[in-house]
Amino acid sequence: MTDPALQRRLRIAYLTMRDPDDRRSWSGTLYSMAQAMEKHCGEVFRVGPLLPTSLKAGEAISHVVRLLTGRTYLYTHTVSLSKKLGAMAEKKMSGVQCDVIFAAAASAVVAHLHTDLPIVYLSDTTLKLMVNYNAEFSNVLSPHLRMADELERQSIAKSSRLVYPSSWAADSAVRDYGADRSRVSVVPFGANLEHPPSREEALRASGQGRCGLLFVGVYWGAKGGDIALDTLMELERLGIPSELTVVGCHPPARIGHPHLRVFPFLDKNIPDQRAQLDRLYSEAAFFILPTRAECFGIASCEANAYGLPVVTTATGGVPEVIRDGVNGFLLPLAARGDQYAARIRDIYDNPEAYQALRASSREQFETRLNWDAWGERVNEILQAAATENRSEAAECGVGYES
C-alpha cells in the first residue's frame, strides 16, 4: 500500500449519468461520493449529468412496449445510447487534465468510452443479479437482455478497478463477468447525512412510551410495508404498546390503524423537512425494513447513525450492511410480521441488551457505514489505478504530466 504521506491529491473525472450535485440523485449517494472524494482523494471534475434527448424517446418506447406486450425494454441499456453517452463524456473531458476516471453507476457510458485514462468503475449490483430480482428488470425482452448484458461485460472488462458496496455484487462481477478478483474491492456506502447526530445525541433515550418502528421507503409493497404493519399489530397483541411511522410512500387506501403515522414525502433538501426526518429517527426504537429486494440499503446506514437497530431481510446486499445481532437482525425472506415482532420483543424486553444493541449499531456507523471510511478506502483504489497507469506509460516511453 502506498504511504499516504507520499500520495498526491488526484485529479478525478467523476463520470455519472445523473447530476452528482443533486441530492436527490440516487437518494443522495452520488452527491455524498463527490463530497467524500473531494475531502479524501483530490480535485473532482464532474462529467455529468449525461442526458441525451433520446432518453425521453426511449422512455416513451419502453412504456408502450410494457403496455402492449407486458415485457420490459431497458431503454437505458442500448448500444446506440451507449455510443452517444460515450461521445458526450469524451467531449466533456476533452482538454481537462485528469489522472483517473471514477464512473459511478454508469455502465452504459463506460462500455463505449474511448480514453487512455484508467477507469475505476462503481456499481451496487450487476445486471445478472438484477434480472428477475428487481421489478424493473423482470420479464426483459430476450434480445435486449443480451445487449444489456454485453454492455455490462464490456464496462467491467474495460475498467482498471471495480468497486462494489457488497460481496453479493462483487462476487457476481467475478463469477458472471470474469472480473479479476484482485482488482475488485468491497467498500460499503455511508449514511447520506450531512450533519449526523453526535454519539451522545444518538444514544440518548427518546422518552417515547411506545416501541416506535420507523419504515422509510418509496415503494410500500417492494419494501415490505404489509409485513411492517403486521409487525405493529403483532407487537400490540403481545402486549407491547407500539407505533409504526411510515415515511416516503402512501400505504394502500384499505390500510388504517390508530397507531400508524404516515409522512408521504420528506425532502432532505428542505431544512424543516430534514429536521422532521431527524426527529422521527430520534424518536424511534427500531428501523424496520422487510424489503423484498435490495442492493445495499443506505437508509439502514442512516438508522445506525441514530443508534437505531435495523430489523430487515437477509437478501441481496443487505447482509453487508447489517450484521446479525450487532447492528440489527436479519430475517429470512419468508418471515412475516409474527417473526419480526418476536425478534423485536426479545430484545426490547431486555433494556440492558437493547441499549447495548443501540451502542453497537452506532459503532457500525462510526467505523464502517460512513462516507469518510468510504473516501479513505476509495482513495487507495484510485491512487493504485493512477500509479499503475503512470508506470505503464513510463514503460512505453509516453510522457506524463505530474
What this model shows, in words?
The chain has 402 residues and is of the alpha/beta class. The chain has two domains: 213 residues, Glycogen Phosphorylase B (Rossmann fold, 3-Layer(aba) Sandwich), CATH 3.40.50; 169 residues, Rossmann fold, CATH 3.40.50. Helices cover 44% and strands 14% of the residues. The strands form two sheets. A six-stranded parallel beta sheet has the order 2-1-3-4-5-6, sandwiched between helices. Strands 9-8-7-10-11-12 form a six-stranded parallel beta sheet, sandwiched between helices. Strand 7, helix 9 and strand 8 form a beta-alpha-beta unit. The longest helix has 25 residues. It is globular. It starts with 9 loop residues before the first strand and ends in a 7-residue tail after the last helix.
* Helix-strand makeup class: alpha/beta
Low-confidence stretches: none
β content, as a range?
5-15%
Distance between the termini: 20 Å
The helix count comes to: 15
Task: Count up the domains.
Answer: 2
Largest beta sheet: strand ordering = 2-1-3-4-5-6
Query: What is the helix content?
Result: 40-55%
Please give a quick description of this structure.
The chain is α/β, with parallel strands linked by helices. Helix content is 44%, strand content 14%.
